[in-house]
Specification:
The complex is a heterodimer of chains A (121) and B (112). Chain A is mainly β and 121 residues long. Chain A has no helices and 11 strands. Chain A is globular and about 35 Å long. In chain B, strands 2, 5, 6, 10, 11 and 12 form a 6-stranded mixed sheet that branches. In chain B, strands 3-9-8-7 form a 4-stranded antiparallel sheet, with no helix packed on it. Chain B has a two-stranded antiparallel sheet with strand order 1-4. Classes of the chains: A mainly beta (121), B mainly beta (112).
Chain lengths: 121, 112
């Protein structure tokens, strides 16, 4: 069964440094997402991406965050200047669509990757 | 506020027994989806079951079934014949307009 893959599995960085988290969504999927989970807390939506642009973002996704699909397979999350509170598990997810309407993204469920644990020291 | 509430931080079940995890949510929308995700110690998020809000019939996937009460905004998960491998965090989520809102999770322990 196709999988969403994320690299690295664990990233340690110093406060103020830039970090890029990488994801390879399932190949025929068109909708891409980033979520994060601070240790012991619930999973929170960050951003959704469709047709090479952000379709929706949460309050968490401020100017320090950006997403990119640099080629036909990768989907990246960049944090420009990491803060201690950015330490969390970051999940990438993808879903397919049978049409062009955003609602159609729920014709199939989100498939999550295994996550990248980001530790900011 | 669009919230998802899981009132049971932890639950325990004996192997082969049945357990029900509760979830309530708040929404003003009429069309949405509901999901249960399982997160084992490996931290991967695995879809267990989903329910379309416009369908009255409760979804079923093998040993997993839901009790969806739309008027009450309730979406509980029933796990029958519990197995040791069912031990995990279970997250209820509601989806619409491109993102999922998750509850805080219920940690399920399965006793042999």
């Amino acid at each position: 069964e196709p999988e969403v893959t994320q690299t690295p599995s664990h990233q340690v960085t110093q406060m103020g440094q830039e970090v890029i988290l990488r994801c390879v969504p399932i190949s025929n999927h068109l909708y891409f997402y980033w979520y994060r989970q601070i240790l012991g807390q619930k999973v929170e939506f960050l951003v959704s991406f469709y047709n090479n642009e952000i379709s929706e973002k949460s309050e968490i996704f401020d100017d320090q965050f950006s997403v990119e699909r640099p080629d036909g397979s990768n989907f990246t999350l960049k944090i420009r200047s990491t803060k201690l509170e950015d330490s969390a598990m970051y999940f990438c997810a993808s879903s397919d669509s049978t049409g062009g309407v955003r609602w159609d993204s729920y014709n199939s469920p989100l498939h999550f990757g295994n996550g990248t644990r980001l530790t900011v020291t | 506020a669009q919230t998802v509430t899981q009132s049971q931080p932890e639950m325990s079940v004996q192997e082969a027994e049945t357990v029900t995890l509760s979830c309530t949510y708040d929404t003003s929308e009429s069309d949405y989806y509901l999901f249960w995700y399982k997160q084992p110690p490996s931290r991967q998020m695995i879809l267990v079951i989903r329910q379309e809000a416009y369908k009255q019939q409760n979804a079923t996937e093998n040993r997993f079934s839901v009790n969806f009460q739309k008027a009450a905004k309730s979406f509980s998960l029933k796990i029958s014949d519990s197995q040791l491998g069912d031990a995990a965090m279970y997250f209820c989520a509601r989806g619409s307009q491109g993102n999922l809102i998750f509850g805080k999770g219920t940690k399920l322990s399965v006793k042999p």
